[in-house]
Amino acid sequence: MPLIVFASPKGGVGKTTMAVNIADAMRRNGRRVLVIDFDPQNTLRLHFGVPLSDTAGFIAELPKRPDWRNVVRQTPSGVMVLPHGAIDIRGALGLSSALERDPELLAAPLRSIMADPGLLVIADTPPGPSHALNLLAPMASMVVAVLLADATSAALVPDIDNGRFLGSGTMAALFAGRLRVVLNQVDPNSRLSRAAAETVARHLGPRLLGAVCRDEVVAEALAAQRLVQDIAPNSRAAEDLREVARGVEAALPAVPDTLQAGWGAR
């Protein structure tokens, strides 16, 4: 039932890579996990080895009201995936308009997905403001903002801190308390990267879930269409990802023991 939304104020920060590898880490910790790709780039599926030729998806077909159960991909990792689906610019604009006119196109199937109390749902949203983020934030147990350890991200911290990242006015005030941050690509050999990471950590305090170091194995995993813990479980990046997953788990609402016991049987 918990919904975790991964977001970022700008692109190119490794948000999707973070979302899929945290999903994998939480599945390894015993969670049943479903990942939904809301980004029209439709690349999330590749991290789980879904063939490039498999372009079907869920979000791209929302105006047709598809049954999400018919689109779920079971992956070797054990994480279930709802791909976005291939879409061109015209289709993306049409989808955006349809969601603006009728938010229930998305809200209704999402409520159906979240009705399973033993299922953890992870949503990967497009960078920056989006209809998806506006619709998902009110339903989310947690919004995880991914930032790079650089000067630009450090400059964005005030917008993260006061909730403007989630919108303006009441929207920001209501959901800022659910916002957490992960720093990505921290380079311990770079004075600027270390300084940016320290600035963010001091400002955000416990809202910072963790940091992931810059590590070539992350790019190698994507190139192989595999997950970091599959190809390099002893790498620094894999350990950092496991630590972030533990932080996410600790920040989520408690789950009854009866549900925990039922996860392994499904």
UniProtKB/TrEMBL annotation:
CDD domains: ParAB_family. InterPro entries: Cellulose_synthase_operon_BcsQ, DNA_Partitioning_ATPase, P-loop_NTPase. The gene is yhjQ. Pfam families: CBP_BcsQ. NCBIfam families: cellulose_yhjQ. This is Cellulose synthase operon protein YhjQ.
